[in-house]
Amino acid sequence: MTTVLVSPTDGELREELGDTAITSSIPEERGCDVVVFLPSLSIGVQRKSVPHDFYLSIKDGRLAKELPLMRERTTIPILILENEPGFDSRGLLRSSDHRHPYPVTEEGYKKLILSVKYTQGVDVDATSSIEDTAKRIKWYIQYFSKGKHKSLFSRSPLVAQWGIESRKERALYLLQGFPGVGPSLAENIWDHFQTVPLKWCCSKEELGEVPLVGKSRLEKLWSVLQRE
Length: 228
Prior knowledge:
By secondary structure, the protein is of the alpha/beta class. The protein has helices at 11-17, 26-29, 52-59, 62-73, 106-119, 130-145, 167-175, 183-193, 204-208, 215-224, and strands at 3-6, 21-23, 34-37, 42-49, 76-82, 92-93, 102-105, 123-127.
């Protein structure tokens, strides 16, 4: 079950998040504007509009109080900075009216973000508007609701030369998954044996009983390591 709680001071964001978002004081107690409770973790989001709200929250000490609370009372704390910062010809952070810049240089701005991330232990994300922030929070929910993320550590999918991969292409792809086997060696093994010199130690029916092995995948697996 997913529960989305929004601070009473962030009514506009609650509307953008939709009817499932609930107004509550709990986010403020955790230094956040939004807290999302998932079965195994909590996501804490504090949003600051750039430049005005972000600068004032540093000057009046709000951010310094919020960041430790976020880190200590949520599993995944995230500071969202809304709007792209602009800097004038002197390198100072532009104000909303562009007439009275804030005494923050571009280098100083970047150092503040580094401090939030690496000193305070709170991740930093950037959005273009409050609507974009709501979309990003929904994306966090979708992402962290999934228990495991392994795509970064998976091999690239097999791309067939002529649209449908041949038995040889599947065999070469499989061979290159073995330690020390690159494209050239895989080709040599295929040329010598005209197959992958391995066989399933089970029947095709037994292989098909394995979870996630559907009919299409079963045929491909069996054709590469088929038993004579």
